[in-house]
């Protein structure tokens, strides 16, 4: 092949790689900003933080920050969405087994994974569940969709053992369990009044009651 053609092909390949590298850099920088948003909004209120302070803490100009997020509210909402994504992703542990009923040790492992997430991501977890700009409907929708996704995931897995997805009482039991799990884990993360193993055992005991009520509901 003539040298000129080789040079031309090499130049074209290099140019083709540039957009991919640029997209990767954009994605990495955006993720870094979201991680910062979780930290900042998790430790300060929305009104306490200005765009100037956010940009300063991020080590970027306001113009670059606005390039990724058109407003402080957009940055806040995106941070809430990121907290929800992390919760769903990092607690997606399916250890119920495939026998006639959920494996007790599998239930324990799933709850341990959840508490591990709460310990690692305490600020992000509290920010997600306690966040909200007043009664901002977009933030409220993200939080509600997250709870619904968790309930749907549990229901899908429990359906292997006979849980009825069309039974309103089943969904209410799951939402009640999730409500307890949220409130108790937030209190535990804030105060650490119980060590992890003791709190885990408490959750296992209560989850066994909830599972029994779902899989062996009382006759009406």
Account of the 3D structure:
This protein is an all-alpha fold and 220 residues long. It folds into 2 domains: 3-76, Arc Repressor Mutant, subunit A (Orthogonal Bundle); 79-215, Tetracycline Repressor, domain 2 (Orthogonal Bundle). It is built from 9 helices and no strands. It has helices spanning 3-43, 51-58, 62-68, 72-90, 104-120, 122-130, 137-158, 168-191, 196-215. α4 (72-90) runs parallel beside α7 (137-158). The protein is elongated. The N and C termini lie far apart (83 Å).
What's a concise summary of this model?
It is built from nine helices and no strands.
Descriptive terms for the model:
220 residues, mainly alpha, Arc Repressor Mutant, subunit A, Tetracycline Repressor, domain 2, 2 domains, 76% helix, 0% strand, disordered N terminus
The CATH architecture of the largest domain would be Orthogonal Bundle
What's the level 1 CATH class of the largest domain?
Mainly Alpha
- What fraction, in percent, of the residue positions are helical? over 70%
Strand residue percentage: under 5%
Order of helices and strands: HHHHHHHHH
* Overall SS class: mainly alpha
Measure the end-to-end span: 83 Å
CATH fold-level label of the largest domain: Tetracycline Repressor, domain 2
- CA-based shape: elongated
Helices, by number, come to: 9
Domain tally:
2
- Rg from alpha-carbon coordinates: 23 Å
- How would you name the CATH homologous superfamily of the largest domain? Tetracycline Repressor, domain 2
Largest sheet: none
Fold topology:
Layout: H1 3-43, H2 51-58, H3 62-68, H4 72-90, H5 104-120, H6 122-130, H7 137-158, H8 168-191, H9 196-215
Helix pairs in contact: 1-4, 1-6, 4-6, 4-7, 5-9, 6-8, 7-8, 8-9
